[in-house]
Amino acid sequence: MPVPPRVRSVGGVEPRVRDAFAAIDRRSFLPGPQRRFADQDRPLGIGFGQTNSQPTTVVNMLTLLDVQPGQRVLDVGSGSGWTTALLGHLVGPEGEVLGVELVAELARSGARNLSAYDMEWTSIRPAEPGVYGLPELAPFDRILVSAMADELPLELVDQLRPGGLMVIPVRSRMLVVRSRGEDPPEVTEHGRYAFVPLVAGDPDR
Description:
Elements: H1 15-23, E1 44-47, E2 50-52, H2 55-65, E3 72-76, H3 82-91, E4 96-101, H4 104-115, E5 122-126, E6 140-145, H5 154-157, E7 160-170, E8 173-180, E9 183-192
Parallel strand pairs: 3-4, 3-6, 4-5, 6-7
Antiparallel strand pairs: 1-2, 7-8, 8-9
Helix pairs in contact: 1-3
């Protein structure tokens, strides 16, 4: 899909992000009844109380994340798989994108949606019980979190390479977190947003 008109992005729409939106069709990541709304700039339900995020929000997050070709990226709360696919386009075949999703049914459907695109360097899996992210596969150059945290989860910060970036909403504020290795991370704020809550993998889901 093209980037919707009047998208309010940080510093305009970066050309590589615009290209990713053109290459990855949001419609193919939506349940049948929602596909007719794919071009609208609003979140759309995908079941289990989850949403496919508003395109404006996704553009802003990807712009802040500054993903580069060849990087390893963790996509936390991959949902329908749309952001995982967008990230896969941004990193290219020299990179890797690993998506994790709390709801096992969505992890499976998101993986099916993703398989329609020829990007073997991308994948989605269910979140491990009680675990944030994929610490056993860290470090990552970038981490995208599409769920609201009550506090900055240091477990995810620890999965960044020194100098790596994480974009995450915390208490309705969009944060960019830069790892500084052994030193406390550098954190900046970039507007207010609404998301579903971030919780570690639940063995009952």
